[in-house]
Amino acid sequence: MQKPGDQGRMGGGDDAASVEQVLKALESRATEAERRLRTLEQGPQSRTSSHEIVQTLQVVRELLYKAKERQLELEKKEATLVKERTQNQAKLTALEGRNSKLEYQILQLKRAVKAGDSALQAAHPQH
Protein backbone atom coordinates (compact mmCIF):
# COMPACT_ATOMS: atom_id res chain seq x y z
CA MET A 1 0.00 0.00 0.00
CA GLN A 2 1.07 3.56 -0.66
CA LYS A 3 1.70 6.07 2.03
CA PRO A 4 0.60 9.66 1.59
CA GLY A 5 4.17 10.81 0.95
CA ASP A 6 4.87 8.09 -1.65
CA GLN A 7 2.78 9.60 -4.46
CA GLY A 8 5.69 10.75 -6.57
CA ARG A 9 7.51 7.40 -6.47
CA MET A 10 4.90 4.98 -7.79
CA GLY A 11 3.02 6.81 -10.61
CA GLY A 12 0.97 9.02 -8.32
CA GLY A 13 1.96 12.16 -10.28
CA ASP A 14 -1.29 12.04 -12.23
CA ASP A 15 -3.26 12.13 -8.98
CA ALA A 16 -1.35 15.22 -7.84
CA ALA A 17 -2.10 17.00 -11.15
CA SER A 18 -5.82 16.24 -10.95
CA VAL A 19 -5.95 17.40 -7.33
CA GLU A 20 -4.24 20.61 -8.38
CA GLN A 21 -6.82 21.11 -11.17
CA VAL A 22 -9.67 20.56 -8.74
CA LEU A 23 -8.14 23.08 -6.33
CA LYS A 24 -7.77 25.65 -9.14
CA ALA A 25 -11.40 25.16 -10.16
CA LEU A 26 -12.57 25.53 -6.55
CA GLU A 27 -10.44 28.65 -6.12
CA SER A 28 -11.91 30.15 -9.30
CA ARG A 29 -15.46 29.44 -8.11
CA ALA A 30 -14.68 30.95 -4.70
CA THR A 31 -13.30 34.11 -6.34
CA GLU A 32 -16.45 34.43 -8.47
CA ALA A 33 -18.66 33.92 -5.40
CA GLU A 34 -16.75 36.64 -3.53
CA ARG A 35 -17.20 39.02 -6.45
CA ARG A 36 -20.94 38.37 -6.52
CA LEU A 37 -21.18 38.84 -2.76
CA ARG A 38 -19.38 42.21 -3.00
CA THR A 39 -21.80 43.29 -5.73
CA LEU A 40 -24.77 42.35 -3.57
CA GLU A 41 -23.30 44.04 -0.49
CA GLN A 42 -22.67 47.26 -2.39
CA GLY A 43 -26.36 47.32 -3.26
CA PRO A 44 -27.98 49.95 -5.43
CA GLN A 45 -24.94 52.27 -5.40
CA SER A 46 -23.17 50.10 -7.97
CA ARG A 47 -26.21 49.61 -10.16
CA THR A 48 -27.96 52.04 -12.47
CA SER A 49 -30.49 54.06 -10.51
CA SER A 50 -34.14 53.92 -11.43
CA HIS A 51 -34.01 57.69 -12.05
CA GLU A 52 -31.33 57.16 -14.71
CA ILE A 53 -33.36 54.38 -16.26
CA VAL A 54 -36.45 56.62 -16.37
CA GLN A 55 -34.43 59.41 -18.01
CA THR A 56 -33.03 57.01 -20.59
CA LEU A 57 -36.52 55.69 -21.34
CA GLN A 58 -37.82 59.25 -21.76
CA VAL A 59 -35.05 60.01 -24.25
CA VAL A 60 -35.84 56.82 -26.14
CA ARG A 61 -39.56 57.70 -26.12
CA GLU A 62 -38.82 61.17 -27.54
CA LEU A 63 -36.63 59.68 -30.26
CA LEU A 64 -39.32 57.17 -31.17
CA TYR A 65 -41.93 59.95 -31.28
CA LYS A 66 -39.74 62.04 -33.60
CA ALA A 67 -39.07 59.00 -35.79
CA LYS A 68 -42.81 58.30 -36.01
CA GLU A 69 -43.50 61.91 -37.01
CA ARG A 70 -40.80 61.72 -39.67
CA GLN A 71 -42.22 58.45 -40.94
CA LEU A 72 -45.69 60.03 -41.26
CA GLU A 73 -44.22 63.01 -43.13
CA LEU A 74 -42.44 60.68 -45.54
CA GLU A 75 -45.59 58.62 -46.08
CA LYS A 76 -47.54 61.81 -46.92
CA LYS A 77 -44.83 62.89 -49.37
CA GLU A 78 -44.84 59.45 -50.92
CA ALA A 79 -48.63 59.57 -51.34
CA THR A 80 -48.34 63.00 -52.96
CA LEU A 81 -45.65 61.77 -55.34
CA VAL A 82 -47.71 58.72 -56.29
CA LYS A 83 -50.73 60.96 -56.98
CA GLU A 84 -48.63 63.35 -59.09
CA ARG A 85 -47.12 60.45 -60.99
CA THR A 86 -50.57 59.07 -61.77
CA GLN A 87 -51.75 62.50 -62.95
CA ASN A 88 -48.63 62.99 -65.07
CA GLN A 89 -49.07 59.55 -66.60
CA ALA A 90 -52.66 60.43 -67.52
CA LYS A 91 -51.52 63.73 -69.06
CA LEU A 92 -48.80 61.94 -71.00
CA THR A 93 -51.29 59.42 -72.35
CA ALA A 94 -53.61 62.25 -73.42
CA LEU A 95 -50.76 64.14 -75.11
CA GLU A 96 -49.60 60.99 -76.92
CA GLY A 97 -53.15 60.50 -78.23
CA ARG A 98 -53.37 64.10 -79.37
CA ASN A 99 -49.95 63.84 -81.02
CA SER A 100 -51.07 60.76 -82.95
CA LYS A 101 -54.16 62.61 -84.19
CA LEU A 102 -52.07 65.60 -85.29
CA GLU A 103 -49.59 63.33 -87.10
CA TYR A 104 -52.50 61.69 -88.93
CA GLN A 105 -53.94 65.09 -89.86
CA ILE A 106 -50.54 66.21 -91.18
CA LEU A 107 -50.27 63.03 -93.25
CA GLN A 108 -53.74 63.62 -94.69
CA LEU A 109 -52.89 67.26 -95.46
CA LYS A 110 -49.70 66.19 -97.27
CA ARG A 111 -51.68 63.72 -99.35
CA ALA A 112 -54.25 66.39 -100.15
CA VAL A 113 -51.54 68.85 -101.21
CA LYS A 114 -49.87 66.21 -103.42
CA ALA A 115 -53.24 65.32 -104.94
CA GLY A 116 -53.94 69.02 -105.54
CA ASP A 117 -50.51 69.54 -107.11
CA SER A 118 -51.03 66.52 -109.35
CA ALA A 119 -54.47 67.76 -110.40
CA LEU A 120 -53.07 71.23 -111.07
CA GLN A 121 -50.24 69.82 -113.15
CA ALA A 122 -52.66 67.67 -115.09
CA ALA A 123 -54.93 70.65 -115.75
CA HIS A 124 -52.11 72.96 -116.74
CA PRO A 125 -49.31 70.95 -118.26
CA GLN A 126 -46.03 72.79 -118.50
CA HIS A 127 -44.58 73.38 -121.86
Task: Write up this protein.
This protein is an all-alpha fold and 127 residues long. 82% of the residues lie in helices and 0% in strands. The protein is elongated and about 130 Å long. The N terminus is likely disordered.
Keywords:
127 residues; 2 helices; single chain; 0% strand
Helices, strands, pairings?
Elements: H1 13-42, H2 50-123
Order of helices and strands: HH
- The residue fraction in helices comes out at over 70%
Main beta sheet? none
Specify the structural class: mainly alpha
What's the count of strands? 0
Tally of alpha and pi helices:
2
Sheet-strand content, in percent, reads under 5%
Mean pLDDT: 85
What's the shape? Answer: elongated
Structural Rg: 48 Å
Distance between the termini: 149 Å
Which runs of at least 5 residues are low in confidence (pLDDT < 50)? 1-11
Short description:
The chain has 127 residues and is mostly helical.
